[in-house]
Structures are given as C-alpha cells and as structure tokens.
Amino acid sequence: MPHQPVPGGENQAALFGDRDAGRRAAVAGVRAQTNFNKHGHVAVAADQIDFTAAHAKVAFDDVQALRAQVVGRALLTGCACDLAARHRMRGMNDESGTVMAKVVEAVVENERALYVVATPIGNLADITLRALEILRRADLVACEDTRHARHLLDHHGIRTATLALHQHNENEAAQKLIAALDAGKCVALISDAGTPGVSDPGARAVAAVRAAGIRVVPLPGANAAIAAISAAGLCEVDDQRFLFVGFLPAKVGARRAAITELAPLAAALVFYEAPHRVLETVADLAALLPGREIIIARELTKLFEQIERLPLSDACAWLTADANRQRGEFVLIVSAPLPAPEATLDPAAERVLNILLAELPLKQAAKLAATISGAPKNTLYAHALALKQQPL
Ligand code: SAM
Questions:
Q1: Do the Cβ atoms of 333 and 360 come closer than 8 Å?
Q2: Atom number of ligand 1 nearest to Cα 226
C-alpha cells in the first residue's frame, strides 16, 4: 500500500521532550522517513503512527531511511530497549547513520526508567500515542488488575507481559519492578483507570523505584478530576484554586470532621465518590458547606456521561429524582465559599472615626465612634484596621 504521509510528524516527535537524546534521534528518524517517502516506496506495514516530517534535511538511501525510521520509532518510546534496532542502525554506512548510531548508543546506555502511564477512565480511545508505544515496547506492564489490563492491551493489540501491583502487594511488587529494571528491562506502570498514584496504587512503587536511584518518567493522560474540572467552568477567582481531596472517609463522623476542616479554605474542593455513598456524602456536603454550588460529574467519557452544576442545597433532590443519577462513577466539585461581603459604613460614622483615629488608639477610636454614631463597633473596628493597613 502506498504510504500516505500525515502532516505534523515532526511535531509528534517533538512531543517526546525537548532535551531528550531520544527525541533528537527520533526527529532524525522522522526526517529519514520523509526522505524515504519522497522516493515513493512502501511504508512499514501495520504502522499506526506516522511521524512524517514536512521537510527532509537528512539524505539517506531507501534502505537506510527505513532503518532510521525503525530506530527513530524505537527511540520515540524513550525506553531504548530495542537492541535489534541498534544493530540495524550500525548497518548504516554513511555519516548520518554513524551520528545516529552514537545517539542510539547513548540512549540505550543511559535509559533505565519506570514509565508511569495514564490509561482511559472510560472511553478506550482516550490513550496517547506515546502511551501505546511504551506499552507495546515495554518488557513488563505492572498493573492493578491483570485481567482488566489485558482487556485494554488486547484492545490495542499489545501482547506485553503483565505483573500485578495493587494496594495489598505494592511493596513486594515494587521490589520485582526494581529487579526487572536492574536487569535492563523496560517497565511500564498502569492502574485500572486514569493516572496511577491518583487515588490508585502506584505512589509507593514510584517512591521505591526513585529511592533505588532509577528514573521515573510520567506519561500524562486521562484523569477523572482534571476531566471534571475542565468541563466545570470554574471561573470565579477563588475557584481557580482547587484542592484535590479524593475520597472522603467512609465513616460518617470522620467524613463530617474532614468536611468541617475543609470548609474555611478559599478554594474549590474536588472529591471522588462511589455510587453507593454519593447521596450521603452530598447530604453532608450540603449541610456543612452552605451557600455553595456543586458540579456533579458522572460517568465521564462514557455513554451516560452527565455534568450538572447546581446549588449544593438542591443536589440531594437532583440525585434522588432519577435512580440512574446515583449510578456509575462520580467526581464532585464544590465551589469555593463566596467572599464575605464588605461591610458598608455610614459616611457620618466614617467621618467621626477618622477624626478620632487621628487622636486616639485604634480600639478606643472605634469604641467611641460607635457610641457617637450608633454604627456597629465591629464594623468600625474592621474599617479602622483596614485604614491602618493601607500603604501610606
Ligand atoms: N486514577 C484515577 C484517576 O486518575 O482519575 C482515579 C481512580 S479512583 C480508584 C476511582 C474513582 O475516580 C471513582 O470512584 C470516581 O470517583 C473517579 N472516576 C474514575 N473514572 C471516572 C469517570 N469516568 N467518571 C467520573 N468519575 C470517575
């Protein structure tokens, strides 16, 4: 089948990091492929990813271009485990090939990393090109549930071996990962859904790998909290700050205490919740965080996705209005508290206060001004304090 170049291939290569040797080699590979295309020959069979560049600067003959493309693609994964590619590279006989071979050597020798790979939170298509390439190239995929992972891997035709790493065996499994990495294997880490280590296993394994002096490389992608935030329209100033809380405690007392502790924060609060607890959690949020709004983001990226923004006081009624609304997976975002309205001060009381403040200490001036004007003492005191704190 004749090869159909897709524009922007060089940009795709650039996604792999700016100062990375692998990226430089990948770009060279991309250019080589372009040259290869220019010669009008067939593409590598079954390629799903096209790294074609718009402008070829490196001259290769057809065979060398193909080799360079293979190596470039191997390096795009960053794992540089493909020794076969390195040998193919050595087969190249011109100057550019030698330069690239050196880059390959450098990457092969320097790269030993755990790749932390985000996977979909529902829609299987929500996975990056780079994630697929790493999962395909890896020697081992550490995953929360091997059957669940196999479903994802099979969907993308990936045959890589899996190793269970979940909350009950994370420390032991981490040691196996370190042993595999020490043996020169390329290891990827995924969880059941979304980003590992975010309300999911992975953080302890990552910490152990880092402590062993091994590089950890994140491959960003799906995350339920960020997906919900992106569709929530949090445009108030205080909502632009958000605190990711994750799951609240399951026990009523602990949950209420946690919410009470969060109440004064001038930030939106982001929670994960399970369907069987969503109603009681929302009831507690409504009771303890009055006057706020809630965004209920349910079944994100799935068939019955729903994103509803409403006053928190109406949320329980909304959830109970239709039994389906309590089904599925939930992100709950509670808006930040509204800033306290500025107390207005009667102009006559303000004048009295200003005169007294020139002669008396702040507290005494506020007290006397309240007696004279009849305005509330606290308001006068706050006003006086604000005046004192103003820059001269
Ligand atoms: N690591 C995942 C991430 O990056 O988002 C989170 C895993 S945590 C064990 C699972 C919780 O995330 C669910 O109970 C739900 O609160 C939230 N979640 C996951 N997928 C979701 C989706 N498609 N829609 C809404 N919430 C989701």
A1: no
A2: 5
Instruction: Tell me whether strands 242-247 and 187-189 are parallel, antiparallel or unpaired.
Output: unpaired
Tokens encoding 202 = 């992975």
pLDDT class of 389 with cuts at 50, 70, 90: low
Angle at 223 between CA 140 and CA 152, to 5 degrees: 40
> In sequence order, which residues have a C-beta less than 8 Å from that of residue 118 and are 6 or more positions away?
127, 128, 131, 190, 194, 195, 196, 219, 220, 221, 222, 223
Pocket residues for ligand 1 (CB within 6 Å)?
121-122, 191, 193-195, 198-200, 223-225, 272-274, 297-302, 329-331
Place of tokens 């308001």: 379
**Span 54-71, average pLDDT:** 41
Contact partners, residue 270, CB within 8 Å, separation at least 6: 225, 228, 229, 242, 243, 244, 245, 331, 332, 333
Q: How far is the CA of 155 from the centre of ligand 1 (A)?
A: 21
pLDDT of residue 219: 98
DSSP 8-state class, residue 114: E
Nearest atom within ligand 1 for CA of residue 272: 16
Distance CA 5, CA 236 (A): 45
pLDDT digits (tens, 9 = 90+) for 209-240: 999 999 999 999 999 999 999 999 988 777 78
Q: Tokens 């390439």 appear where?
A: 133
Global pTM? 0.67
Mutational pocket test of ligand 1: of 116, 121, 166, the residue with most ligand atoms within 8 Å of the beta carbon: 121
Fill in the DSSP letter of residue 231. Answer: T
Mean of pLDDT over the chain: 79
What are 193-203's pLDDT values in tens digits?
A: 999 999 999 99
Mutate to test the pocket of ligand 1, among 145, 308, 331, 332 (most ligand atoms within 8 A of CB): 331
Ligand 1: atom nearest CA of 302 is 23
Largest CA distance in the chain: 97
For residue 198, which atom of ligand 1 is closest to its CA? 1
